Each structure stands twice: as structure tokens, then as C-alpha cells.
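Q: Sequence in, structure out?
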Amino acid sequence: MNVRETGDVSALMRDIGVRARKAARVLGLAESAQKTNALEAAAKAIRANKAKILAANAEDLAAAKKQNIAPSFLDRLTLNDKAVDAIAAGMEQVALLPDPIGEVIADWQQPNGLMFQRVRTPLGVVAVIYESRPNVTADAGSLCLKAGNAVILRGGSDSFHSSRAIQECLVAGLKEAGLPEDSIQLVPTTDRAAVGELLSGLNGNIDVVVPRGGKSLVARVQLEARVPVFAHLEGVCHVYIHAPADLDMAKSIVFNAKMRRTGVCGAAETLLVDKKAAPTHLKPLVEMLLEAGCEVRGDEATRAIDARVKAATAEDWPAEYLDKIIAVKVVDGLQAAMDHIAKYGSQHTDAIVTDDPSEAEVFLREVDSAIVLHNASTQFADGGEFGFGAEIGIATGRMHARGPVGVEQLTSFKYRVHGKGQTRP
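A: Exactly. Output:
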């Protein structure tokens, strides 16, 4: 009886780790064309198996609804025809990206004649732990494959059937291209003990862990992981309206940043309005949000312009609602806005709307977030929108990767040194 049939989660996970490491050694040396073929074949398999994927997703959705899962989680869990087509298209985008492996990042010669090259290499084995979003299965699998990494995927129990259906398509692509099927593994159990095993590093077989989910998941990963972590905390994203700002543009950006999809990490959670812009901009912005069904929680100045605005509390300023709720505050200029973001933000994504390019430049330089925008919606916080094809997540830490984690962020490097018999004196 093999370990997948014994119910021994520890043995199961160790076996997955060994197989991933073995696959990584092959995948890291694979030709670019072979990886491209695998991704293109996987995309075809996604389209061919659309009905199967949607049936699996319907099973997950039915179970989630019985558990009274929050609407924001249901939104992230839900797949439809358009979403499945987007998954396949995303894979094809990744397939077309330049292969980073073997790229010479820098080269130079020392006075002794030695030639140095810094060259991109795969990370090795990546573990991705995520909740709700079945599309992460495809994004993580395709990005890791392109970057020459084996990946171990541990999706949430709420998306288990959807993730498995998608992963099977990825494996079909690997098989067609002649690459190891263990290059993209999905943990075949919903037992929470499997997460602890991943965080242990599986006897040195995991090189990095990427958590993608709620604050409690990320906090657990950061606390328990014995391997490096690409941290992704909450998306407490801000839009700051600075005078002078075009009102129509401000309304368009704020509406999109908050209401396009409220359950994504790039959704705006706080609107800050410059005191000088408040007489002309605050009321139209607040009324627009209220009329769209968004609950507004505001400071005293915001409550004064509309009786429907609820009083904001201290808990609202650092809140990630992931819902049709926004906190609104009037601030005394650019510095006050940046101070507010520094105190309450999560260093994820923050935007300024203004016609003053010099003030915008100050904001972009001084706001210490992974993504800062001028006159654009925070919902552009997405690897696909950056031209990365897809992303595993938005890293909010400062080590190794920051912002959307795409193909290049899933690589390391090594030094190649060419000599002609030099020895060190």
C-alpha cells in the first residue's frame, strides 16, 4: 500500500516533497520550448475540460453556501465560462513570456582577467498555500513551470474540487510535453495537518512558501514556516484625492477601485480627500458610493455632508473590508494623507488622484507600498495587468520579491566565473 492510501499525512507530505525535488532537477534544465509546449497543452486541456471544471466548482460552491460563507469568499471561489477562458488565456500569456532561466542579468571583467556573469536560476521547489481562489492553481502552476520550479499546491478545502480539476489539466500539459508530472502537485487531502508539514519544509525539499489568503493564514505561515516566505498581508488600499483633481476622473477611479470587485486584495478600503478638494469633491464622491450600494463610514466632515454616512471608528482605518464598505476621511493636504497611509496601510497598493505632477511625484516617492499609482485605480494591482501573464500573489515584504510575484520573481541567480588559469595570490 503506498503512502497516499494509508492516511498518514506526514508520510504523504514527505513523499510529495521528495517527488517535487526530483522533478525540480529535471524541470530546471528543461528547454524553453518544452515548457512552452506544456503550458499551451495545459491551456487546451482547460478549454476541453471546461464542463468538468465548472461541475467541480458547482460542487464547491454548493458546499460553501451550506456553510454560510461570506459573499466576498463566494466571489473569489466562483468560476464561470468567462473565468475558465481567462484561466486558459492566462496560461497562454505565460507561455509567450521570455524564459528567464539562463538570462545573464549582469556581466563584468576584473583586472585579473576573470569574467563574471550573474545568471537567473530557478528557486527549486515552491509551496503555495491559498484559500478560496481556484484560479491560483493555474496561475501558480503555470508561473512556476515557466520559471523552472516544481510547485506543491495546497488549496483551501472550500475550493478542493475546482483546484483538482484545474491541476489535472496542468498535469496533462506536462505529460504531453514530456516533463515530470510531479512538477505540479496538488496536496490530495484537506487535512489541516498538511499545512504544518509544508511549513516544516518537508526535510529540506521546499525552498520557499507563498501564502495567499486571509490574515490568519498569512500570520500562521509567517509564524511557523522554517523556510523563506513571500509575505502577502491584507490589502488595506487607499485612494487619495488631492487638489487639484479632475472630478470626473476622481469619480471614475474611486468607483472602480472600490466597486469593480470588492473581494480582491487591490480593492480600495479607504478614501482620503484633501481638505482643499472637499468642498467640490467630497459630496459627489460619497453620494456616488452610497447610491451604488456601498456603505460609507466617515469622519465628522464626511458625516456632515450626508446623513446616510455612518460614524467611522478607530477599527475602520486599518480595516480590510473585502465588501461594499469604505472608510472616508478628510485630510489636511498631502503630508497628512501620507501619514495616514503610513500608520494604517498594509504597504500593498495606494493611489493618488491629482492634476499636480509634482505632488504626485512626492506621493509616488514617499509612500512605501509595493504598488503606488497616479491617476489610476488600485485594482490594477494584478500581475496580468503588469504584463506578467499572471501572479501568485502581491508580496508586501521587502525581501527578494515585492509587488506582483510573476515569473522573474520566482527565480534566484548564481555566478558563473570564466578564467584562463588564474590563481589567487
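The chain has a mean pLDDT of 94.
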